[in-house]
């Protein structure tokens, strides 16, 4: 029996997350429809639980994925701030960017402190605009 269990474990392949099989517009249409979540799920090919979650939480209504800390205009402002650093003799590094981001978050009244993961994703989103 022990050998059979080992063979099962040996052939085990971890399932990888699948990408969403629906568009942002399909999600918006499903959430805004007058249909119940089960009917809307079938019609728009969006999971019923996703539709219910977005209907309950107004801030999720028009987006897919987790909400970001900053709005797009706040991120644009922060990008502009980082772009100005070389004019003042400072190179934008991860350490400098995180310090500035923490100060910026506090000035906006945000209780979350950005960390390395946030910075990594921020840099990825703005790789064309910020040169490290």
Automatic annotation (TrEMBL):
<protein>
    <recommendedName>
        <fullName>HTH psq-type domain-containing protein</fullName>
    </recommendedName>
</protein>
